[in-house]
Amino acid sequence: MAGKSNAEGGAGIDPMHQFEVHPIIELPTIAGVDTSFTNASLWMVLAIGLSSLFLIAASRRTSIVPGRLQLMGEMAYSFVANMVKENVGTEGMKYFPFIFSLFVFILFCNMLGMLPYSFTVTSHLIVTFALAATVFLLVTLVGFARHGVSFLKLFVPSGIPVVLLPLLVVIEVISYLTRPVSLSVRLFGNMMAGHTMLKIFGGFVVGLSSAGLIPLAIAPFALMVAFTGLELLIAGLQAYVFTILTCIYLNEAIHMDH
Amino acid sequence: MPQLDPSSFGSQLFWLAICFVTLYLVMAVVVLPRITGTLAARAEQMEGDLAKAEALRDKAETALAAYEEALAQARTRALGLAQDMRAEVQAETERQKGELDASLAKSAKAADARLEKARTKAMEGLQSAAQDIVADVMSAVGVEKADEKAVAKAVTQAFSSPSDTVKAG
Q1: Which residue among A62, A77, A127 places its CB closest to the CB of B12?
Q2: Which residues of chain B make contact with A77, given a CB cutoff of 8 A?
């Protein structure tokens, strides 16, 4: 994460260093898959551990008049539940646990990434792509399970001249197939760009101060503080965007209305 | 760019799958059913409380209507009773007054009769006294033997028309 780290200091800071994955515990390769426990794995485990602890503690008391912790849990629940109800309808509540887990996982990974010296799980394209592909597969499966072959009508817009139809069907198919790409790149890009920028500004601050130009370091430091606030906002916002797009795709698969 | 290094993909996907499935199970089995239950119980409780409040308000309104009806009835009855009582009292007063009038008239009549009787008696006494006085006066004047019958006649005449007597005298 942001470059308050790196004691070597100065201009030699590599802003991409923070994204490096290195194994903590070497584990054998099983069926061609490397199972080593890396720093990325550690922060994934921390994210699900902390979120599970928080939500289990928040849902422990089930009193009619909630306490603070219980209310926080219920607010998170209602936030995602309302999103699903408004965008997908009551049929969507079947997939609510999945969507809620998705939101909580991305939110905690993003937020933990804001801690100094931490690792941002969602700044890796392979992770966000895996999540987006899961969403894509789920949506496609739900669509075919509900509508059978007529789910393909999704790619045929209604009220269009027949001449234009072949072109539009191709465009629709391409836009449908690129969904996992756009979904994953949006999250990955936001996370990576933000953290890289913070690291670069951090490098300026460290470099200028170690060169004895502390007054000059004030400007990049102020910018870093401001961008940290912005990054916190983006961390929450991107979790929301990922979740709401999942809802919108799911709604399309269930109701088939453009 | 470490993100494009495929050597880390296997491990990342492996741990992502484990973590996400674990999180999903914790949410789907433990956390979400609990919160769903709590929210449902709260909604139910609120609905029940509202229904109870509604029922109680209806009851209170019914009670108020009944009270007002009873009050109106009582007022009508009180009015009727007062009228009856007034009529009764009036009739009783009327009756007592009638009785009193009758008894007063009776006693007045009796008194009148007694008075008449006493007057007649007094007149008679006076007439005989006058006769005696006339006889005495005549004897004193010197008329030895007065005609008793003529005296009585003259006195009776004088009593029946006193003015004539004065003229004759």
Answers
A1: A127
A2: 32, 35-36, 39
Nearest CA in chain B to A54: B31
> Does the pLDDT value for residue B169 go beyond 70?
no
User: In chain A, which residues have pLDDT < 50?
Assistant: 1-11
**Residue B145 confidence class, pLDDT cut points 50, 70, 90:** low
**A92: number of Cβ within 10 Å:** 21
Predicted local distance difference test score (pLDDT) of residue A6: 41
B residues 13-42 near A, CB within 8 Å?
A: 13-17, 19-20, 22-24, 26-28, 30-32, 34-39, 41-42
Contact: B13, A130; criterion CB under 8 Å: yes
- Is there a contact between A101 and B23 if contact means CB atoms under 8 Å apart? yes
Do residues A61 and A52 make contact, with C-beta atoms less than 8 angstroms apart?
Answer: no
On whether the CB atoms of residues A129 and A180 are closer than 8 A, the answer is yes
- Tokens (6 digits) for B59: 């009851």
CB-defined contacts A:B, below 8 A: 135
**Which residues are registered as beta bridge partners of A1?**
none
Structure tokens that stand for A34 in this block: 């490397």
Contacts for A101 with CB less than 8 Å, ≥ 6 apart: B20, B23, B24, B27, B28
pTM of structure:
0.72
Residues A161-192 have pLDDT tens digits of: 888 888 888 998 999 999 999 999 999 999 99
Name chain B contacts of A119, Cβ cutoff 8 Å.
Answer: none
H or E element: which one contains A200? helix A179-210
Place of tokens 């008194």: B111
Residue B106: alpha-carbon gap to chain centroid? 37
Using CA coordinates, name the residue in chain B closest to A80. B32
- DSSP 8-state symbol, B149: H
Which residues have CB under 8 Å from A6's CB, separation 6+?
A: A13, A17, A203, A206
Q: Could you report the predicted ipTM of this complex, rounded to two decimals? A: 0.86
What DSSP string describes A133-194? HHHHHHHHHHHHHHHGGGGGGGGS-SS--GGGHHHHHHHHHHHHHTHHHHHHHHHHHHHHHH
